[in-house]
Specification:
Helix content is about 55%, strand content about 5%. It is mostly helical. The protein has two domains: about 40 residues; about 70 residues, Orthogonal Bundle (Diphtheria Toxin Repressor, domain 2). The longest helix has 24 residues.
Length: about 140
């Protein structure tokens, strides 16, 4: 959902626009109120706070950085990059995000460099080595 960080919206209108049941949105809004991210009075409009605006901007920056890295550097499709970025952004540290942002911003614009990287990454498709046998999120870590 791409919404402006300005303005206000009623809970029922938000529920309708995202296709979620009203009680679910009401609970989510209350959690955001409790966290200081939005202001909302019963039957009133939801209004984002400065803390909420900062959090939203941080999330957007993280998502953009990861999506750019996955798409522009690793060569994933736009759809796959968005999907993977969404999964990664919940577990990656601020320090790593900052370092990835620097990396993405300073990578060589050389066509030869990009072609060589694309060639190397293209060789990963169908790879049969042990790394593909690890079920990410399902394999128990070493004790």
């Amino acid at each position: 959902m791409n919404r402006s960080l300005e303005g206000q919206i009623r809970v029922r209108d938000l529920a309708k626009s995202v296709g979620v049941k009203l009680p679910s949105v009401t609970r989510a809004v209350q959690k955001l109120v409790d966290a200081g991210m939005v202001r909302h009075e019963t039957y009133g409009k939801i209004e984002i706070t400065e803390a909420g605006r900062n959090a939203a901007q941080s999330i957007t920056m993280r998502d953009d950085c990861l999506s750019r890295f996955l798409k522009d550097v690793l060569g994933l499709s736009e759809v796959q990059a968005q999907s993977e970025a969404c999964r990664i952004e919940h577990v990656i540290s601020d320090d790593v995000i900052q370092r990835l942002e620097i990396l993405v911003n300073h990578l060589s614009p050389s066509k030869e460099w990009k072609a060589a990287l694309k060639n190397e990454l293209g060789g990963l498709n169908g790879r049969k080595d042990p790394i593909n046998r690890v079920a990410v999120g399902k394999t128990k870590p070493h004790a």
